Sequence to fold (249 residues):
Amino acid sequence: MSDTFDRVATIIADVADIPREKITPESHAIDDLGIDSLAFLDIAFEIDKTFGIKLPLEQWTQEVNEGKVPAEQYFVLKNLCERIDGLVAEKAAKV
Amino acid sequence: MRLEYFDMIDRVVSLDRAAGRIEALATVPMASPVFEGHFPGHPLVPGVLLTETMAQASGYLLLARASFSHMPFLMGVDKARFRSFVGPGAVLEVEASLEHDGSGYAVTKAAIRAEGKPLCNAELRFKTMPFPDGLDAPMRERAARIGLLDGAAA
Fold:
């Protein structure tokens, strides 16, 4: 998780031009870091490439819009990193 | 090409949905109101319209891959380079390949050549979303007109 967080934080810092020290596991990507939807897709692309996964953004957006899942579950970085770890493990299990 | 209508692709030459690759042709018209301003007495296709041409080729590739379930909208242009002037009558060979197929977005690399010579290239990003009301049919009609799915390899 901490390795995942470090890599994700570095991606966010580079793509969204946010000082690395401002980014913590508790940061909410939108509310705390002010990342807009365009920048978030750029970040998703870098995450997809870096981890060899496909973040299911459409599914997540739908779940949040339908009120099934609070946005924090995806946008607070420690939660996002947990999901990335899950997707990486899922992919490894398939190989 | 009908520059002033943003109708850039004339004909799809090849489409490989599985490999994520498309090739198309576009002939620059001999006359267009665009050339009255760009530039007076010295007609050149503006770089933004070459970018649009690369974006439309990429867009048709994404439409075909998604079987018209989602509409791509251009949201980012990276590393765009315009290497040579393009004037009236030029036959443009447009190609685009899928770089990454994300969830709700896609990234392509596209290029245009004329007589085999590189004219421009760029990396393009698209947001892909369910078709807005009323856009599905016109896009299918346009795709049919340029032969998008004729002879698709996969």
